[in-house]
Amino acid sequence: MRLVVLGGGESGVGTAILGKKKGYDVFVSDFGKIKENYKEVLTINKIPWEDEKHTEALILNADVVMKSPGIPDKAPIVKQLMEKQIPVISEIEFAMPFTDAKIIGITGSNGKTTTTLLTYHLLKQGGLNVGLAGNIGKSFAWQVADNNHEYYVLELSSFQLDGIVSFKPHIAVITNISPDHLDRYNYDYNLYIASKFRITENQTAADYLIVDNEDSAIQNWLQNNKTQATVYPFSLQEEIEKGCYLKEDTIYTNINNEEFTMPIKELALDGKHNVKNAMAATAVAQLLKIRKQTIRESLSNFQGAEHRLEKVLKIQNVQYINDSKATNVNATFFALDSMNTPTVWIVGGVDKGNDYDELMALVREKVKGIICLGVDNQKLFNTFNGVVDVMIETTSMTEAVKIAQRMAEKGDTVLLSPACASFDLFENYEDRGKQFKQAVHNL
Q: 2-89, which class in CATH?
C-alpha cells in the first residue's frame, strides 16, 4: 500500500511516521519548504520526501493520500488525485483505525481551543490516561504511533472534518458556529455549517453530541437533520432538563442522570463565553464519570490558552491583553464583550470577508481608540472612522504597543484582538501574540 502525504508539517510528519510503522510505502511531498526539524525526523525514519515541488509521478501512484488541513481542495495536485479517484483523507481519518482509544472531538468557530484544553485538564486531573491532539500540540497520528492513550481530546477544524469517511468520536462537542473560512467553502455559509456537523455523521446511539442551545446555525441544522447520538445542549438563557444551564450565576448540569452545580465566580476563566466552554467540558467529564469534586477543582485552577484573552502585564494600572488567536469577527466580539474598562483596541490583518458592523454596538460602548495593525486597513476605517475618538494606522507591533501606551490612561485596557488572519505582517497568530507580549515587556 502506497501512502502519499501532502504537507510536511506536524500532521503530515505524524501521519508519515504512523504509516511507516504500519507497513505502508510512504512518501511526503510539500509544495512549500519543510522545516529543518521535520526533515531530520523524516530522514532518521528513512521516509523519502520532497519540498518546494509536487512530482506527479511520485504522487499519482498512491493508494491513499493524506492531505494536510492547510491545503485547499482546489489545489491542482488535489484536483488530479480526485480525477483519478484516489482517496484523499485527513490525518484523523488515517489514524483512527489504529487506536482503540475513546475519542472526544471538539469543533466550533470559536472557543474550541479553550474547551479542548479545559476538557483535557478535567480528564487528566480525573486520572484518565488521555492525550491531547488535533490542532493543538503533537499530531494525533504521531501519538497513535508512539503512545498508548485510552482517551484522546481532539480539537478539530472544519478542514480536518472535510477529509473524513468513517472517523467517529464517542463524544462530539460543537461550541458554536459563525461565518469563518468562507473562502474555502465557495462563500456558502451552509457548506461550512455542514462541514462542522460531519463530526456527528458516523456517531451511533451509543455516542454523545454536546451543543450550544442558543446558536441559531446549530439549532437550524438539528431541526432539519438527524443525528443518531444523544444530544446534550448547554444554555445561558433557559433551564434545560437534560444538559447544562445557568441560573442565578450558578452552573447546573444533569448529564446521564448525574447532577452537578458550581457558582460561576469560582471559574478560573472570565466572560460569558467561558461559562459555555466550562459547561461543555463539564458535560464531557460527567459522561466519562469524573468525580464532581475533581471537576470543581479543575474548573477553578485551570490556566487558560496562550494568545486567547491572555493577561500579559499591568503597567501604570493599564492591563495589556493578548487575544491574538481572535482571527475572526466572532472571536473579537467575545473579547470586546468581556471588557469592563475603557479599551484601546489593536485590530487588523488579512481580512477573511469580515463584516465589522457586528462589532459596532460594542465599539461604541467600550472602545476609546483603535490602532489598525495591517497592510490594508481601508475597511476598518470605512466602518469605525468617526465612531471612536482616535484611529491610527501602523505596520509594526512595537509601534502599535507604544501608541497604545500613549492613548491609555489609568484603569484602561489595551486589547490585541485582531479579528483577522496574521499573514500580512506575521508568520502566524502565535508569532503575532509573542511579538505583542515582547513589545509590552519592553515598555
A: alpha beta
Is 108 annotated to bind a ligand? Reply is: yes
Predicted structure pTM score:
0.77
pLDDT tens column, 308-326: 888 899 999 999 999 999 9
In this predicted model, what pLDDT tens digit does every residue of 114-145 receive, in sequence order? Answer: 899 999 999 999 999 999 998 877 899 999 99
CATH class as words, domain 94-301: alpha beta
Q: Where would I find the H helices in 315-355?
A: 329-337
CA 48 to chain centre: 31
- Rounded to an integer, the average pLDDT of 402-414 is 97
Domain with CATH 3.40.1190.10 in the chain: 94-301
Q: Residue type for 147, please?
A: N
pLDDT of residue 309: 86
Look at the domain 310-441 and name its fold: Protein-Tyrosine Phosphatase; Chain A (3.90.190)
CA distances from 423 to 351, 379, 397, 428, 429 (A): 10, 17, 14, 6, 8
Annotated binding residue 111: yes
Judge whether 112 is annotated as a binding position. Answer: yes
Rounded Cα distance, 387 and 19, in Å: 55
- Using only the alpha carbons of the chain, give its radius of gyration: 22
Mean pLDDT, the chain, integer? 93
Q: Is 109 annotated as a binding residue?
A: yes
Instruction: Name the residue with cell 495589556.
Output: 320
Which residue ranges does the chain devote to CATH 3.40.50.720? Answer: 2-89
Question: Where do you find CATH 3.90.190.20 in the chain?
Answer: 310-441
